[in-house]
Amino acid sequence: MLDRLQELKEEALKKVEAAESVKELKDIRIAYLGKKGPVTEVLKGMGKLTAEERPKVGQMANEVRAAVAVSIEEKEQKLEEAALAEKLRAESIDVTLPGRPTVKGARHPLTSVIETIEDIFIGMGFTVAEGPEVETDYYNFESLNLPKHHPSRDMQDTFFITSDLLLRTQTSPVQTRTMEKHEGKGPVKIICPGKVYRRDEDDATHSHQFMQIEGLLVDEGIRMSDLKGIFEQFVKRYFGEDREIRLRPSYFPFTEPSAELDVSCAICGGSGCRTCKQTGWIEVLGSGMVHPNVLRMGGFDPEKYTGFAFGMGVERFAMLKYGIDDIRHFYTNDTRFLSQFHRV
């Protein structure tokens, strides 16, 4: 048995030396040192040995097991070190190569303007409301005092999907939907940002899809002077403390009385220039007191409640703020244009 153990030792050590992978070493460990391995078989036959032979065979068997185990561990360590060295060689980095600049994204100027306007109105107690871009004829027109065949509908050349469904031409439907949710109980104090769609020819100042932000405040005792006070705060916070405002009479079917808001020209300070067409003023949005019919459609009693509403084009406010001369720049995804707003 001693000779057999010596043979097994030499045989196992040769296979360990020849092994080229950790898997082969694992197989050798199982084959020679496992429960069904030859060393174990030798130990099982020790019962047939004399009392004098058993200690010698037992000692020899332990020496064989230890020698094979140590040899396997050493070879396994060498193979792992060699594999790591090869991996490091393959993944080596040439630190002398020039770095590759990372192109960072930036907030879109329209997004920045919307967030700025939202922050201003939220600071004045308004909340942000949203609604569907695919609207019904009722919410987009009828609930806003624009019954079927009303001439003012022609002012908004509409994308109709069916005779009753359309792409909304304004964010005003959100106002009616919000008033309905309040079930005739004020106050309602919201702004409604979102996309709107009209069949316009795309040019420097028009787009078939653009962004609007509309505002609505309905409560008891709301007056036109409240609207003017809101505008004064908004304009000074958005355009600067030195800007002045004026309200000009206008017409919108969903407000009565209606007014356009003008802001003093930042270029000439009100003296007149090409930008303001020599008037000293720049028109920025439309507004007015909510028409009694609109209040009724929204579930409010016009004898008890009054309110004001306004609507502004986000692109116009962005163009005025950043001096952009063509609305199409916002939608062409030209990185040369967008990269100017990395710090906006």
TrEMBL record:
Binds 2 magnesium ions per tetramer. The keyword Secreted does not apply. Signal peptide: none annotated. Keywords: Aminoacyl-tRNA synthetase, ATP-binding, Cytoplasm, Ligase, Magnesium, Metal-binding, Nucleotide-binding, Protein biosynthesis. It comes from the Bacteria. The keyword Nucleotide-binding applies. Residues 111-320 form the Aminoacyl-transfer RNA synthetases class-II family profile domain. Its EC number is 6.1.1.20. Its cofactor is Mg(2+). One of its GO terms (biological process) is phenylalanyl-tRNA aminoacylation. It is found in: Cytoplasm. It holds the Pfam family tRNA-synt_2d. GO terms for molecular function: ATP binding; catalytic activity, acting on a protein; magnesium ion binding; phenylalanine-tRNA ligase activity; transferase activity; tRNA binding. Mg(2+) binds at E256. It catalyses: tRNA(Phe) + L-phenylalanine + ATP = L-phenylalanyl-tRNA(Phe) + AMP + diphosphate + H(+). Gene3D superfamilies: Bira Bifunctional Protein, Domain 2. InterPro entries: aa-tRNA-synth_II, aa-tRNA-synth_II/BPL/LPL, Phe-tRNA-synth_IIc_asu, Phe-tRNA_ligase_II_N, Phe_tRNA_ligase_alpha1_bac, Phenylalanyl-tRNA_Synthase, tRNA-bd_arm. GO terms for cellular component: cytoplasm. Tetramer of two alpha and two beta subunits. Belongs to the class-II aminoacyl-tRNA synthetase family. Phe-tRNA synthetase alpha subunit type 1 subfamily. This is Phenylalanine--tRNA ligase alpha subunit. The lineage of its organism: Bacteria, Bacillati, Bacillota, Bacilli, Bacillales. The gene is pheS.
